[in-house]
Design brief:
The complex is a heterodimer of chains A (322) and B (285). Chain A is mainly α. Chain A has a single domain, classed as MetI-like fold. In chain A, strands 1-2 form a two-stranded antiparallel sheet. Chain B is flat and about 65 Å long. The C terminus of chain B is likely disordered. The chains are: A mainly alpha (322), B mainly alpha (285). Chains A and B meet through helix 1, helix 3, helix 4, helix 5 and helix 7 of A and helix 1, helix 3, helix 4, helix 5 and helix 6 of B.
Chain lengths: 322, 285
Protein backbone atom coordinates (compact mmCIF):
# COMPACT_ATOMS: atom_id res chain seq x y z
CA UNK A 1 0.00 0.00 0.00
CA UNK A 2 1.45 3.36 -0.93
CA UNK A 3 1.20 6.27 1.42
CA UNK A 4 -0.47 9.33 -0.08
CA UNK A 5 2.74 11.30 0.37
CA UNK A 6 4.97 8.97 -1.68
CA UNK A 7 3.10 8.11 -4.82
CA UNK A 8 4.65 6.16 -7.63
CA UNK A 9 3.78 8.11 -10.77
CA UNK A 10 3.03 5.91 -13.78
CA UNK A 11 4.70 6.58 -17.06
CA UNK A 12 3.10 9.40 -19.02
CA UNK A 13 1.05 8.48 -22.07
CA UNK A 14 2.68 8.87 -25.48
CA UNK A 15 3.02 12.37 -26.89
CA UNK A 16 0.27 12.01 -29.41
CA UNK A 17 -2.37 11.74 -26.68
CA UNK A 18 -1.46 14.96 -24.92
CA UNK A 19 -4.62 17.05 -24.59
CA UNK A 20 -5.11 20.47 -25.99
CA UNK A 21 -5.59 23.58 -23.98
CA UNK A 22 -9.31 23.41 -24.73
CA UNK A 23 -9.62 20.13 -22.86
CA UNK A 24 -7.92 21.79 -19.92
CA UNK A 25 -10.48 24.55 -19.83
CA UNK A 26 -13.29 22.04 -20.22
CA UNK A 27 -12.02 20.07 -17.22
CA UNK A 28 -11.82 23.20 -15.12
CA UNK A 29 -15.37 24.12 -16.08
CA UNK A 30 -16.62 20.64 -15.18
CA UNK A 31 -14.95 20.84 -11.75
CA UNK A 32 -16.32 24.33 -11.25
CA UNK A 33 -19.85 23.19 -12.11
CA UNK A 34 -19.63 20.41 -9.52
CA UNK A 35 -18.67 22.96 -6.88
CA UNK A 36 -21.59 25.13 -7.98
CA UNK A 37 -23.96 22.16 -7.65
CA UNK A 38 -22.89 21.89 -4.02
CA UNK A 39 -23.51 25.56 -3.44
CA UNK A 40 -26.86 25.37 -5.21
CA UNK A 41 -27.78 22.44 -2.94
CA UNK A 42 -27.50 24.56 0.18
CA UNK A 43 -29.36 27.50 -1.31
CA UNK A 44 -31.98 25.13 -2.70
CA UNK A 45 -32.37 23.70 0.79
CA UNK A 46 -33.03 27.12 2.31
CA UNK A 47 -35.36 28.24 -0.47
CA UNK A 48 -37.41 25.05 -0.56
CA UNK A 49 -37.92 25.14 3.22
CA UNK A 50 -38.94 28.79 3.11
CA UNK A 51 -41.20 28.15 0.12
CA UNK A 52 -42.81 25.02 1.56
CA UNK A 53 -43.36 26.63 4.94
CA UNK A 54 -44.68 29.89 3.55
CA UNK A 55 -48.42 29.04 3.90
CA UNK A 56 -47.90 28.52 7.63
CA UNK A 57 -45.94 31.73 8.10
CA UNK A 58 -48.55 33.59 6.10
CA UNK A 59 -51.46 32.15 8.06
CA UNK A 60 -50.06 32.50 11.57
CA UNK A 61 -47.58 35.33 11.14
CA UNK A 62 -44.99 35.89 13.81
CA UNK A 63 -47.32 34.16 16.27
CA UNK A 64 -46.22 30.87 14.74
CA UNK A 65 -43.03 31.16 16.74
CA UNK A 66 -44.68 32.02 20.05
CA UNK A 67 -47.82 29.92 20.19
CA UNK A 68 -47.65 26.51 21.78
CA UNK A 69 -50.96 25.38 20.33
CA UNK A 70 -50.40 22.44 17.96
CA UNK A 71 -53.67 20.94 16.89
CA UNK A 72 -54.08 19.18 13.52
CA UNK A 73 -57.82 18.78 14.13
CA UNK A 74 -58.54 22.51 14.29
CA UNK A 75 -55.60 23.31 11.97
CA UNK A 76 -53.95 25.52 14.58
CA UNK A 77 -50.17 25.36 14.61
CA UNK A 78 -47.61 27.08 16.83
CA UNK A 79 -43.96 26.18 17.00
CA UNK A 80 -43.11 27.31 20.52
CA UNK A 81 -43.40 23.85 22.12
CA UNK A 82 -40.98 22.05 19.78
CA UNK A 83 -38.63 25.05 19.70
CA UNK A 84 -38.38 25.13 23.48
CA UNK A 85 -38.05 21.33 23.55
CA UNK A 86 -35.21 21.47 21.02
CA UNK A 87 -33.32 24.16 22.90
CA UNK A 88 -33.84 22.56 26.33
CA UNK A 89 -32.70 19.07 25.26
CA UNK A 90 -29.73 20.43 23.28
CA UNK A 91 -28.44 22.63 26.10
CA UNK A 92 -29.08 20.00 28.76
CA UNK A 93 -27.15 17.43 26.73
CA UNK A 94 -24.32 19.92 26.25
CA UNK A 95 -24.26 20.53 29.99
CA UNK A 96 -23.88 16.79 30.59
CA UNK A 97 -21.48 16.03 27.74
CA UNK A 98 -19.13 19.01 27.87
CA UNK A 99 -17.31 18.26 31.15
CA UNK A 100 -17.05 14.60 30.20
CA UNK A 101 -15.72 15.36 26.71
CA UNK A 102 -13.12 17.77 28.06
CA UNK A 103 -12.17 15.22 30.72
CA UNK A 104 -11.77 12.43 28.17
CA UNK A 105 -9.66 14.61 25.87
CA UNK A 106 -7.38 15.77 28.71
CA UNK A 107 -6.96 12.22 29.98
CA UNK A 108 -6.07 10.91 26.52
CA UNK A 109 -3.55 13.68 25.83
CA UNK A 110 -1.99 14.24 29.27
CA UNK A 111 -2.26 11.15 31.43
CA UNK A 112 -2.89 8.06 29.36
CA UNK A 113 0.12 6.10 28.04
CA UNK A 114 0.28 7.08 24.37
CA UNK A 115 0.00 3.53 23.02
CA UNK A 116 -3.31 3.01 24.82
CA UNK A 117 -4.46 6.57 24.12
CA UNK A 118 -4.05 5.96 20.40
CA UNK A 119 -6.41 2.99 20.48
CA UNK A 120 -8.87 4.65 22.82
CA UNK A 121 -8.98 7.67 20.53
CA UNK A 122 -9.74 5.47 17.53
CA UNK A 123 -12.47 3.68 19.50
CA UNK A 124 -14.02 7.00 20.51
CA UNK A 125 -13.91 8.23 16.91
CA UNK A 126 -15.53 5.03 15.61
CA UNK A 127 -18.31 5.29 18.16
CA UNK A 128 -19.05 8.81 16.96
CA UNK A 129 -19.98 7.20 13.65
CA UNK A 130 -22.59 4.77 14.96
CA UNK A 131 -25.97 5.69 13.45
CA UNK A 132 -28.39 7.52 15.67
CA UNK A 133 -31.10 4.90 15.23
CA UNK A 134 -28.92 2.46 17.19
CA UNK A 135 -28.62 4.96 20.05
CA UNK A 136 -32.37 5.49 19.83
CA UNK A 137 -33.18 1.80 20.19
CA UNK A 138 -30.81 1.48 23.11
CA UNK A 139 -32.44 4.48 24.73
CA UNK A 140 -35.93 3.13 24.29
CA UNK A 141 -35.37 -0.49 25.30
CA UNK A 142 -32.49 -0.31 27.78
CA UNK A 143 -32.03 3.17 29.21
CA UNK A 144 -35.69 4.22 29.58
CA UNK A 145 -36.90 1.20 31.61
CA UNK A 146 -33.80 1.27 33.80
CA UNK A 147 -34.14 4.99 34.36
CA UNK A 148 -37.82 4.69 35.26
CA UNK A 149 -37.22 1.92 37.82
CA UNK A 150 -34.02 3.09 39.43
CA UNK A 151 -34.09 6.87 39.24
CA UNK A 152 -37.46 8.31 38.34
CA UNK A 153 -39.67 6.25 40.70
CA UNK A 154 -37.40 6.57 43.77
CA UNK A 155 -37.13 10.31 43.18
CA UNK A 156 -40.91 10.63 42.82
CA UNK A 157 -41.42 8.69 46.04
CA UNK A 158 -38.93 10.66 48.07
CA UNK A 159 -39.82 14.25 47.19
CA UNK A 160 -42.39 16.09 49.20
CA UNK A 161 -45.67 16.46 47.28
CA UNK A 162 -46.27 20.03 46.20
CA UNK A 163 -42.70 21.20 46.66
CA UNK A 164 -40.71 22.67 43.75
CA UNK A 165 -38.78 19.42 43.47
CA UNK A 166 -42.07 17.60 42.95
CA UNK A 167 -42.87 19.96 40.08
CA UNK A 168 -39.42 19.40 38.60
CA UNK A 169 -39.60 15.60 38.82
CA UNK A 170 -43.28 15.03 38.01
CA UNK A 171 -44.23 12.99 34.97
CA UNK A 172 -45.30 9.55 33.85
CA UNK A 173 -42.63 7.18 35.18
CA UNK A 174 -41.93 5.36 31.90
CA UNK A 175 -38.47 6.81 31.30
CA UNK A 176 -39.45 8.48 28.03
CA UNK A 177 -38.94 12.15 28.79
CA UNK A 178 -36.94 15.30 28.23
CA UNK A 179 -34.17 14.23 30.58
CA UNK A 180 -33.52 10.78 29.13
CA UNK A 181 -33.59 12.29 25.63
CA UNK A 182 -30.91 14.75 26.73
CA UNK A 183 -28.94 11.89 28.27
CA UNK A 184 -28.96 9.96 24.98
CA UNK A 185 -27.99 13.10 23.09
CA UNK A 186 -25.15 13.65 25.54
CA UNK A 187 -23.83 10.13 24.95
CA UNK A 188 -24.05 10.75 21.20
CA UNK A 189 -22.21 14.07 21.09
CA UNK A 190 -19.64 13.03 23.72
CA UNK A 191 -17.32 11.08 21.36
CA UNK A 192 -17.81 13.74 18.72
CA UNK A 193 -16.68 16.60 20.94
CA UNK A 194 -13.98 14.57 22.70
CA UNK A 195 -12.35 13.86 19.31
CA UNK A 196 -12.24 17.56 18.39
CA UNK A 197 -10.99 18.57 21.85
CA UNK A 198 -8.24 15.97 21.69
CA UNK A 199 -7.06 17.26 18.31
CA UNK A 200 -7.05 20.81 19.70
CA UNK A 201 -5.06 19.83 22.81
CA UNK A 202 -2.51 18.00 20.66
CA UNK A 203 -2.09 21.18 18.61
CA UNK A 204 -0.75 23.12 21.63
CA UNK A 205 2.98 23.76 20.99
CA UNK A 206 5.06 21.36 23.12
CA UNK A 207 7.37 24.22 24.15
CA UNK A 208 4.52 25.85 26.07
CA UNK A 209 3.65 22.67 27.92
CA UNK A 210 7.26 21.86 28.68
CA UNK A 211 8.06 25.37 29.82
CA UNK A 212 5.16 25.22 32.26
CA UNK A 213 6.21 21.83 33.58
CA UNK A 214 9.77 23.16 33.75
CA UNK A 215 8.91 25.89 36.25
CA UNK A 216 7.24 23.28 38.44
CA UNK A 217 3.58 23.40 37.49
CA UNK A 218 1.40 20.43 38.27
CA UNK A 219 -0.55 18.81 35.43
CA UNK A 220 -3.65 20.57 36.65
CA UNK A 221 -1.95 23.92 36.39
CA UNK A 222 -0.44 23.17 32.97
CA UNK A 223 -3.80 22.12 31.55
CA UNK A 224 -5.86 24.77 33.31
CA UNK A 225 -3.58 27.78 32.90
CA UNK A 226 -1.69 27.04 29.69
CA UNK A 227 -3.39 24.50 27.43
CA UNK A 228 -7.08 25.32 27.85
CA UNK A 229 -6.55 29.08 27.45
CA UNK A 230 -4.46 28.37 24.34
CA UNK A 231 -7.27 26.46 22.59
CA UNK A 232 -10.06 28.67 24.00
CA UNK A 233 -11.29 30.03 20.69
CA UNK A 234 -11.42 26.73 18.83
CA UNK A 235 -12.88 25.04 21.89
CA UNK A 236 -15.92 27.30 21.67
CA UNK A 237 -16.18 26.18 18.04
CA UNK A 238 -16.07 22.54 19.10
CA UNK A 239 -18.85 23.14 21.62
CA UNK A 240 -21.00 24.82 18.98
CA UNK A 241 -20.41 21.93 16.61
CA UNK A 242 -21.67 19.56 19.30
CA UNK A 243 -24.61 21.86 19.91
CA UNK A 244 -25.44 21.88 16.20
CA UNK A 245 -25.46 18.11 16.18
CA UNK A 246 -27.68 17.92 19.27
CA UNK A 247 -30.13 20.48 17.88
CA UNK A 248 -30.71 18.61 14.63
CA UNK A 249 -30.55 15.05 15.92
CA UNK A 250 -33.71 13.23 14.93
CA UNK A 251 -34.00 9.49 15.37
CA UNK A 252 -32.50 9.02 18.81
CA UNK A 253 -34.71 11.76 20.23
CA UNK A 254 -37.85 10.59 18.42
CA UNK A 255 -37.51 7.21 20.09
CA UNK A 256 -37.31 8.44 23.64
CA UNK A 257 -38.72 11.93 24.15
CA UNK A 258 -42.34 10.79 24.44
CA UNK A 259 -43.63 13.04 21.66
CA UNK A 260 -46.21 15.25 23.29
CA UNK A 261 -47.05 18.73 22.11
CA UNK A 262 -46.87 21.93 24.05
CA UNK A 263 -44.26 23.18 26.49
CA UNK A 264 -42.40 20.57 28.52
CA UNK A 265 -43.96 20.67 32.00
CA UNK A 266 -41.05 19.28 33.98
CA UNK A 267 -37.66 17.66 33.64
CA UNK A 268 -39.23 14.20 33.63
CA UNK A 269 -42.21 15.02 31.42
CA UNK A 270 -42.54 14.00 27.81
CA UNK A 271 -41.96 16.63 25.17
CA UNK A 272 -40.96 17.03 21.56
CA UNK A 273 -38.26 18.64 19.49
CA UNK A 274 -38.57 20.18 16.03
CA UNK A 275 -36.86 17.22 14.41
CA UNK A 276 -38.91 14.62 16.30
CA UNK A 277 -42.16 16.39 15.46
CA UNK A 278 -41.32 16.39 11.75
CA UNK A 279 -40.22 12.75 11.80
CA UNK A 280 -43.37 11.67 13.63
CA UNK A 281 -46.04 13.60 11.79
CA UNK A 282 -44.84 14.28 8.29
CA UNK A 283 -45.98 11.09 6.59
CA UNK A 284 -49.26 11.16 8.48
CA UNK A 285 -49.93 14.85 8.00
CA UNK A 286 -53.62 15.43 7.44
CA UNK A 287 -53.80 18.60 5.39
CA UNK A 288 -51.76 21.04 3.35
CA UNK A 289 -51.49 23.47 6.23
CA UNK A 290 -50.21 20.70 8.50
CA UNK A 291 -47.45 19.89 6.00
CA UNK A 292 -46.65 23.57 5.57
CA UNK A 293 -46.42 23.99 9.34
CA UNK A 294 -44.00 21.05 9.58
CA UNK A 295 -41.81 22.45 6.80
CA UNK A 296 -41.94 25.85 8.49
CA UNK A 297 -40.69 24.10 11.64
CA UNK A 298 -37.86 22.70 9.50
CA UNK A 299 -37.03 26.22 8.36
CA UNK A 300 -36.80 27.39 11.97
CA UNK A 301 -34.56 24.41 12.79
CA UNK A 302 -32.39 25.29 9.81
CA UNK A 303 -31.91 28.85 11.04
CA UNK A 304 -31.01 27.70 14.56
CA UNK A 305 -28.56 24.98 13.45
CA UNK A 306 -27.08 27.13 10.68
CA UNK A 307 -26.18 29.84 13.20
CA UNK A 308 -24.57 27.26 15.45
CA UNK A 309 -22.69 25.34 12.74
CA UNK A 310 -21.56 28.45 10.88
CA UNK A 311 -20.21 29.94 14.11
CA UNK A 312 -18.47 26.67 14.90
CA UNK A 313 -16.82 26.41 11.49
CA UNK A 314 -15.61 30.00 11.60
CA UNK A 315 -14.11 29.54 15.07
CA UNK A 316 -12.60 26.12 14.31
CA UNK A 317 -11.09 26.70 10.90
CA UNK A 318 -10.63 30.42 10.34
CA UNK A 319 -7.53 29.79 8.21
CA UNK A 320 -9.55 27.60 5.84
CA UNK A 321 -11.75 30.50 4.85
CA UNK A 322 -9.15 33.01 3.73
CA UNK B 1 11.06 36.47 47.44
CA UNK B 2 7.87 36.73 49.35
CA UNK B 3 6.55 33.25 48.64
CA UNK B 4 8.35 30.87 50.95
CA UNK B 5 8.10 27.18 50.40
CA UNK B 6 5.16 26.04 52.43
CA UNK B 7 4.32 22.41 52.99
CA UNK B 8 0.61 23.15 53.14
CA UNK B 9 0.66 24.99 49.85
CA UNK B 10 2.62 22.20 48.20
CA UNK B 11 0.37 19.51 49.60
CA UNK B 12 -2.72 21.35 48.45
CA UNK B 13 -1.42 21.68 44.91
CA UNK B 14 -0.60 18.01 44.87
CA UNK B 15 -4.01 17.10 46.20
CA UNK B 16 -5.79 19.25 43.62
CA UNK B 17 -3.72 17.60 40.93
CA UNK B 18 -4.60 14.09 42.13
CA UNK B 19 -8.24 15.07 42.16
CA UNK B 20 -7.88 16.40 38.61
CA UNK B 21 -6.31 13.16 37.36
CA UNK B 22 -9.03 11.17 39.11
CA UNK B 23 -11.80 13.26 37.56
CA UNK B 24 -10.48 13.03 34.01
CA UNK B 25 -9.91 9.28 34.38
CA UNK B 26 -13.42 8.99 35.74
CA UNK B 27 -14.82 10.86 32.75
CA UNK B 28 -12.99 8.52 30.38
CA UNK B 29 -14.15 5.45 32.28
CA UNK B 30 -17.73 6.69 32.17
CA UNK B 31 -17.60 7.42 28.46
CA UNK B 32 -16.05 4.08 27.58
CA UNK B 33 -18.48 2.26 29.88
CA UNK B 34 -21.53 3.95 28.34
CA UNK B 35 -20.40 3.15 24.84
CA UNK B 36 -19.45 -0.45 25.69
CA UNK B 37 -22.85 -0.85 27.32
CA UNK B 38 -24.56 0.17 24.09
CA UNK B 39 -22.50 -2.25 22.01
CA UNK B 40 -23.11 -4.96 24.60
CA UNK B 41 -26.90 -4.68 24.49
CA UNK B 42 -26.74 -4.51 20.72
CA UNK B 43 -24.88 -7.82 20.55
CA UNK B 44 -26.91 -9.51 23.30
CA UNK B 45 -30.26 -8.57 21.76
CA UNK B 46 -29.29 -8.93 18.15
CA UNK B 47 -27.07 -11.98 17.92
CA UNK B 48 -29.83 -14.46 18.79
CA UNK B 49 -31.88 -13.64 15.71
CA UNK B 50 -28.95 -13.38 13.34
CA UNK B 51 -29.25 -16.31 10.94
CA UNK B 52 -29.41 -16.98 7.22
CA UNK B 53 -33.14 -16.22 7.10
CA UNK B 54 -32.46 -12.61 7.94
CA UNK B 55 -30.70 -12.27 4.59
CA UNK B 56 -32.91 -14.52 2.46
CA UNK B 57 -36.49 -13.76 3.55
CA UNK B 58 -38.52 -10.59 3.24
CA UNK B 59 -40.03 -8.85 6.24
CA UNK B 60 -42.81 -10.93 7.81
CA UNK B 61 -46.30 -10.02 8.95
CA UNK B 62 -46.36 -10.01 12.78
CA UNK B 63 -46.09 -13.50 14.22
CA UNK B 64 -44.67 -15.18 11.13
CA UNK B 65 -41.20 -16.14 10.07
CA UNK B 66 -39.23 -13.69 8.03
CA UNK B 67 -36.09 -11.68 7.57
CA UNK B 68 -34.87 -8.33 6.38
CA UNK B 69 -34.04 -9.08 2.74
CA UNK B 70 -36.19 -6.33 1.24
CA UNK B 71 -34.66 -3.87 3.70
CA UNK B 72 -30.98 -4.60 3.21
CA UNK B 73 -31.32 -4.92 -0.54
CA UNK B 74 -33.15 -1.59 -0.67
CA UNK B 75 -30.54 0.07 1.53
CA UNK B 76 -27.75 -1.25 -0.67
CA UNK B 77 -29.40 -0.09 -3.90
CA UNK B 78 -30.11 3.40 -2.61
CA UNK B 79 -26.70 3.81 -0.97
CA UNK B 80 -24.85 2.66 -4.10
CA UNK B 81 -26.89 4.96 -6.28
CA UNK B 82 -26.28 7.83 -3.86
CA UNK B 83 -22.56 7.08 -3.81
CA UNK B 84 -22.31 7.25 -7.59
CA UNK B 85 -23.71 10.78 -7.50
CA UNK B 86 -21.67 11.74 -4.45
CA UNK B 87 -18.36 10.44 -5.78
CA UNK B 88 -18.70 12.19 -9.13
CA UNK B 89 -19.78 15.55 -7.73
CA UNK B 90 -17.66 15.32 -4.57
CA UNK B 91 -14.38 14.48 -6.28
CA UNK B 92 -14.86 17.11 -8.99
CA UNK B 93 -15.87 19.79 -6.49
CA UNK B 94 -13.01 18.84 -4.15
CA UNK B 95 -10.62 19.00 -7.10
CA UNK B 96 -11.81 22.48 -7.96
CA UNK B 97 -11.36 23.64 -4.36
CA UNK B 98 -7.88 22.15 -4.07
CA UNK B 99 -6.49 22.97 -7.54
CA UNK B 100 -8.31 26.00 -8.87
CA UNK B 101 -9.69 27.62 -5.74
CA UNK B 102 -6.64 29.35 -4.26
CA UNK B 103 -7.07 33.09 -3.97
CA UNK B 104 -10.64 32.82 -5.19
CA UNK B 105 -13.36 34.35 -3.02
CA UNK B 106 -16.00 32.04 -4.46
CA UNK B 107 -13.94 29.03 -3.40
CA UNK B 108 -13.92 30.32 0.16
CA UNK B 109 -17.71 30.51 0.09
CA UNK B 110 -18.07 27.02 -1.40
CA UNK B 111 -15.63 25.57 1.13
CA UNK B 112 -17.55 27.17 3.99
CA UNK B 113 -20.96 26.06 2.70
CA UNK B 114 -19.63 22.55 2.20
CA UNK B 115 -18.45 22.48 5.81
CA UNK B 116 -21.91 23.64 6.89
CA UNK B 117 -23.61 20.97 4.77
CA UNK B 118 -21.29 18.43 6.39
CA UNK B 119 -23.14 18.84 9.68
CA UNK B 120 -26.56 20.01 8.52
CA UNK B 121 -29.42 18.06 10.16
CA UNK B 122 -30.25 15.15 7.89
CA UNK B 123 -34.00 15.47 8.39
CA UNK B 124 -33.92 18.86 6.67
CA UNK B 125 -32.30 17.26 3.64
CA UNK B 126 -35.22 14.83 3.66
CA UNK B 127 -37.70 17.73 3.65
CA UNK B 128 -35.79 19.44 0.84
CA UNK B 129 -35.83 16.35 -1.39
CA UNK B 130 -39.49 15.83 -0.57
CA UNK B 131 -40.14 19.32 -1.90
CA UNK B 132 -38.18 18.85 -5.12
CA UNK B 133 -38.60 15.17 -5.99
CA UNK B 134 -41.62 13.77 -4.17
CA UNK B 135 -44.25 16.49 -4.15
CA UNK B 136 -43.93 17.46 -7.86
CA UNK B 137 -44.17 13.81 -8.94
CA UNK B 138 -46.91 12.89 -6.48
CA UNK B 139 -45.17 9.85 -5.10
CA UNK B 140 -42.41 8.55 -2.87
CA UNK B 141 -39.58 6.88 -4.74
CA UNK B 142 -36.28 5.13 -4.18
CA UNK B 143 -34.72 7.70 -6.49
CA UNK B 144 -35.70 10.50 -4.10
CA UNK B 145 -34.20 8.50 -1.23
CA UNK B 146 -30.95 8.04 -3.11
CA UNK B 147 -30.75 11.75 -3.96
CA UNK B 148 -31.34 12.65 -0.31
CA UNK B 149 -28.53 10.31 0.73
CA UNK B 150 -26.29 11.75 -2.01
CA UNK B 151 -26.75 15.23 -0.50
CA UNK B 152 -25.38 13.90 2.77
CA UNK B 153 -22.46 11.94 1.32
CA UNK B 154 -21.22 14.54 -1.18
CA UNK B 155 -19.84 17.03 1.38
CA UNK B 156 -17.86 14.21 3.03
CA UNK B 157 -16.32 13.20 -0.31
CA UNK B 158 -15.62 16.83 -1.24
CA UNK B 159 -13.85 17.55 2.02
CA UNK B 160 -11.66 14.43 1.98
CA UNK B 161 -10.83 14.95 -1.70
CA UNK B 162 -9.70 18.52 -1.06
CA UNK B 163 -7.67 17.53 2.00
CA UNK B 164 -5.90 14.64 0.30
CA UNK B 165 -5.13 16.56 -2.88
CA UNK B 166 -3.58 19.39 -0.90
CA UNK B 167 -1.20 16.84 0.61
CA UNK B 168 0.35 16.06 -2.80
CA UNK B 169 3.67 17.78 -3.31
CA UNK B 170 4.13 20.58 -5.81
CA UNK B 171 7.12 18.78 -7.27
CA UNK B 172 4.69 16.22 -8.71
CA UNK B 173 2.67 18.90 -10.48
CA UNK B 174 5.77 20.64 -11.74
CA UNK B 175 7.24 17.39 -13.02
CA UNK B 176 4.06 16.65 -14.96
CA UNK B 177 3.90 20.11 -16.47
CA UNK B 178 7.61 20.05 -17.31
CA UNK B 179 6.86 17.07 -19.53
CA UNK B 180 4.45 19.26 -21.44
CA UNK B 181 1.17 18.02 -20.00
CA UNK B 182 -1.65 20.49 -19.44
CA UNK B 183 -2.91 21.32 -15.98
CA UNK B 184 -6.08 19.22 -16.23
CA UNK B 185 -4.07 16.34 -17.60
CA UNK B 186 -1.64 16.48 -14.68
CA UNK B 187 -4.52 16.58 -12.20
CA UNK B 188 -6.28 13.58 -13.71
CA UNK B 189 -3.29 11.40 -14.45
CA UNK B 190 -0.84 12.31 -11.73
CA UNK B 191 -2.55 13.92 -8.77
CA UNK B 192 -5.69 11.77 -8.75
CA UNK B 193 -3.60 8.66 -9.18
CA UNK B 194 -1.30 9.66 -6.36
CA UNK B 195 -4.30 10.40 -4.12
CA UNK B 196 -6.14 7.21 -4.99
CA UNK B 197 -6.22 5.67 -1.52
CA UNK B 198 -7.38 8.97 -0.07
CA UNK B 199 -10.16 9.28 -2.62
CA UNK B 200 -11.33 5.74 -1.81
CA UNK B 201 -11.29 6.64 1.88
CA UNK B 202 -13.45 9.68 1.20
CA UNK B 203 -15.97 7.54 -0.63
CA UNK B 204 -15.97 4.95 2.16
CA UNK B 205 -16.45 7.59 4.86
CA UNK B 206 -19.34 9.02 2.86
CA UNK B 207 -20.81 5.56 2.50
CA UNK B 208 -20.49 4.95 6.24
CA UNK B 209 -22.18 8.27 6.91
CA UNK B 210 -25.28 7.47 4.85
CA UNK B 211 -25.69 3.74 5.45
CA UNK B 212 -27.31 4.31 8.83
CA UNK B 213 -29.29 7.44 7.99
CA UNK B 214 -32.98 7.14 8.75
CA UNK B 215 -34.43 10.62 8.90
CA UNK B 216 -33.87 11.64 5.25
CA UNK B 217 -35.49 8.41 4.02
CA UNK B 218 -38.70 8.68 6.05
CA UNK B 219 -40.40 10.95 3.53
CA UNK B 220 -38.46 10.23 0.37
CA UNK B 221 -38.22 6.47 -0.13
CA UNK B 222 -40.87 5.82 2.56
CA UNK B 223 -40.49 2.04 2.87
CA UNK B 224 -41.92 -1.03 1.20
CA UNK B 225 -42.84 -4.39 2.76
CA UNK B 226 -41.84 -6.21 -0.43
CA UNK B 227 -38.61 -6.67 -2.30
CA UNK B 228 -38.41 -4.00 -4.99
CA UNK B 229 -35.86 -3.00 -7.60
CA UNK B 230 -37.92 -0.19 -9.11
CA UNK B 231 -36.29 3.17 -8.53
CA UNK B 232 -39.52 5.04 -9.24
CA UNK B 233 -41.45 3.32 -6.46
CA UNK B 234 -41.10 3.33 -2.67
CA UNK B 235 -38.31 1.09 -1.47
CA UNK B 236 -37.57 -0.42 1.92
CA UNK B 237 -34.36 0.41 3.75
CA UNK B 238 -32.76 -1.10 6.81
CA UNK B 239 -32.96 2.01 9.01
CA UNK B 240 -36.60 2.84 8.26
CA UNK B 241 -37.60 -0.81 8.73
CA UNK B 242 -35.82 -0.84 12.09
CA UNK B 243 -37.65 2.34 13.05
CA UNK B 244 -41.02 0.85 12.12
CA UNK B 245 -40.33 -2.50 13.83
CA UNK B 246 -38.79 -1.09 17.00
CA UNK B 247 -41.82 1.10 17.69
CA UNK B 248 -44.28 -1.71 16.93
CA UNK B 249 -46.12 -3.70 19.56
CA UNK B 250 -44.95 -7.13 18.32
CA UNK B 251 -42.11 -8.93 20.03
CA UNK B 252 -40.87 -10.72 16.91
CA UNK B 253 -40.73 -7.42 15.00
CA UNK B 254 -38.75 -5.87 17.83
CA UNK B 255 -36.35 -8.78 17.75
CA UNK B 256 -35.82 -8.24 14.03
CA UNK B 257 -35.23 -4.56 14.73
CA UNK B 258 -32.38 -5.47 17.09
CA UNK B 259 -30.89 -7.78 14.45
CA UNK B 260 -31.10 -4.96 11.91
CA UNK B 261 -29.48 -2.50 14.32
CA UNK B 262 -26.65 -4.95 14.93
CA UNK B 263 -26.16 -5.40 11.17
CA UNK B 264 -26.02 -1.65 10.58
CA UNK B 265 -23.59 -1.09 13.43
CA UNK B 266 -21.30 -3.85 12.14
CA UNK B 267 -21.48 -2.48 8.59
CA UNK B 268 -20.78 1.12 9.60
CA UNK B 269 -17.92 0.17 11.94
CA UNK B 270 -16.21 -2.04 9.39
CA UNK B 271 -16.52 0.48 6.55
CA UNK B 272 -15.02 3.12 8.84
CA UNK B 273 -12.16 0.82 9.86
CA UNK B 274 -11.37 -0.10 6.24
CA UNK B 275 -11.44 3.58 5.26
CA UNK B 276 -9.12 4.53 8.09
CA UNK B 277 -6.58 1.77 7.47
CA UNK B 278 -6.35 2.88 3.83
CA UNK B 279 -4.96 6.26 4.80
CA UNK B 280 -3.83 5.44 8.36
CA UNK B 281 -5.85 8.26 9.86
CA UNK B 282 -4.23 11.09 7.92
CA UNK B 283 -7.58 12.59 6.93
CA UNK B 284 -8.93 15.32 9.12
CA UNK B 285 -12.58 15.52 9.94
Amino acid sequence: MTLPGNPAPRSMPPRGLLPTRRNDTLFQVVCFSAAMVLMAALFGLILSLAWGGWPAFERFGIGFLFSSEWNPVTDEYGAAGPIVGTLVTAFLSLLLALPLAVGVAIFLVEFCPQRIAHWLAIAVELLAGIPSIVYGMWGLFVLAPWFADHIQLPLLMSVEPGSWLDTLFSGVPNGANIFTASLILAIMILPYMATVFRELLISVPPQMREAAYGIGCTSFEVVGSIMLPYIRRSAVGAVMLGLGRALGETMAVTFIIGNSHGFPKSLFASGSTIASTIANEFTEATGDLHIAALIALGFVLFLITFASIAGARLLLGAERYR
Amino acid sequence: MSVPFSFDHHARRKLVNYLFVALTSGATLFAIAALLLILYSLVVNGIGGLDAQVFTLDQPPPGEMGGLRNAWVGSLIMCLFAMIIAVVIGILAGTWLAEYGDGNKLAVVVRFLNDVLLSAPSILVGLFVYEILVRPFHGFSALAGAVALAFLATPVVTRTTEDIMRLQSHALREAGMALGAGRGHVIRNVIWRASRSGLVTGALLGFARISGETAPLLFTSLGNPFLSFDLTHPMASLPTTIFQFALSAYDDWRELAWVGALLIAIAVLSINIIGRTLTRGSISK
